[in-house]
Amino acid sequence: MQIKPEDLTKAGYFLYEKLEHDELIPFVRKSLHKWSLISIFFYGVNLGLLVLVVVYAWIAITKHDIAIGDLIFYYSFGFTVCLILIPIHEFIHVMAYKWLGAKETSLDYNLKKFSFMALANNFVANRKEFTMVALMPFTLISCFLILLLFFVDHYWQLTILSTLLLHSAMCSGDFGIVNFFHIHKSKHMVTYDDTLNKVSFFFIKKTRTNE
Question: Which one in 1, 3, 62, 194 has a CA-CA gap of 20 to 30 Å to 112?
Fold first, then answer.
C-alpha cells in the first residue's frame, strides 16, 4: 500500500492488535484454531501429505523392495533438507516484500522457539499483499518439490515427500497470520512491522460496524 504508518490514523484506521514478536507462536496457534477456509486448507494439506507419506512407505517396502533401514534414512534426511530450506523460505518472503515496494527488509529469529520471521520495517501491507508475501514460499517450494518427484528415483522420492510434509507443517506461522487476516477481512485490516522494537501492528478501517 502507498501509505505510511503515521498516516493510517488520518486515513481512518485505528489499532486493532499489537503482536510482540516473542509472542508469535501462541498467536499463530490461536489463529489456526479458528476454522475458516484457510485453516481447513492448511490442516487438510498436512493430513493429506501425512497419509501420502505412510502410503508411499508401504509401497516402497512391498513394491520397490526398499529395506526398512533405507526407508528410515531417506525419510529422516527430509529433516536436513527442510533445515536447508529455511533460509531459502525466508529469502522468498523478503523478495516478495521488495517486489511490493518495501525498502527496509530484515530477518528475525528465535532459535529457542525455532521461529523465523521476514520483516519489512514500516511497510504497510493490506490483506491481499500480506497473503501473497506469506504464502509465496509455501507455493513455490511445494511446487518445486512436487515437480522434482518425477525426476528422482524411489529412494529420493521418500526424502522429497518427507520434506514436503515437514515444510508444509513449518508454514504454520504463515498460514496462522493469513488466517487472522481472513477472519477479519471485512474490517479492511492492514499491518506493518516495527523491527527496532520487534513488534507488528494490525490496524482496521473505521466503519459503522466497528467504531
Answer: 194
